[in-house]
Amino acid sequence: MRHRTLGPLRVGAIGYGAMPLSIEGRPDEARALATVHAALDAGITLLDTADSYYAPGGEPGHNELLLARALASYGGTTDHVLVATKGGRGRTDGGGWGVDGRPEHLKRAAKESLRRLGTGAIGLYQLHKPDPAVPYADSLGALRELADDGTVRLVGISNADVHQIREARHILGDRLVSVQNRYSPAVRDAEPELRLTAELGLAFLPWSPLGGISRSSLDGTSAVSADPAFGGFHRVARERGVSPQRVALAWLLSLGPHVLPIPGGSRPESVRDSAAAADLVLGEEERALLP
Fold first, then answer.
1. Catalytic residue among 53, 54, 125, 136
2. DSSP characters for 247-270?
3. Which pLDDT tens digit goes with each residue over 203-227?
4. CA 241, CA 191: separation in Å to the nearest integer?
């Protein structure tokens, strides 16, 4: 797999978002572990998780514990694998998603994530979402303290706008290495953030990157879209003999060398197909067919 830069690190150009393995409709553990192992076999070295990836009524950190077990049971070396987790969100008993950006919560949550992952430090810790009830600078300050005390090595932010990215850069400096926002063929309102991250030398991690091709697991059961607006992806896929999802990921990679998509998937076949997008280079005529 081709590689890209995330802060001081080189990671596979396609990452893996492990959320579908722990929320509603998740697979059994055997298939979940096989899915993570397939991702590693395919050259994926960035695994994205969060303490809030668990089913309603379950225990926080289900996904982190699952990844820890998957890495421990993998037959090959995992020293080069970067596990990126997030703090600042949670689940409600009714299946909703809460937000808590209080510094004391973030520092406690990071320590708990570190315990579940079982590593010396969290490779990449991300503020999951700004909390409107907490000054953004206060939440960022907690992440800075976590980096200063060695709990986390690198820091990222998620669901942030241009002003928040600039504020994070001011407060965190070089500790800030990534921004994780929603971006896909169907959802492109993060264009300003995509451009700014390129300008600042930050990695941009699109979450739910297959919108318009298939929906995010957070939004419902995945399904191939019949929307004619995205027919170009299907046309290129037919001509190349690959899936439309693979074409969509290749398109995202073509937007800039700082883009690192993190598609999900709950089957080994899905993650292998996603990983193959790293080696699919689109020509100019093919790019012209894509909206």
1. 53
2. HHHHHHHTT-TTB------SSHHH
3. 999 999 999 885 433 333 334 445 6
4. 30
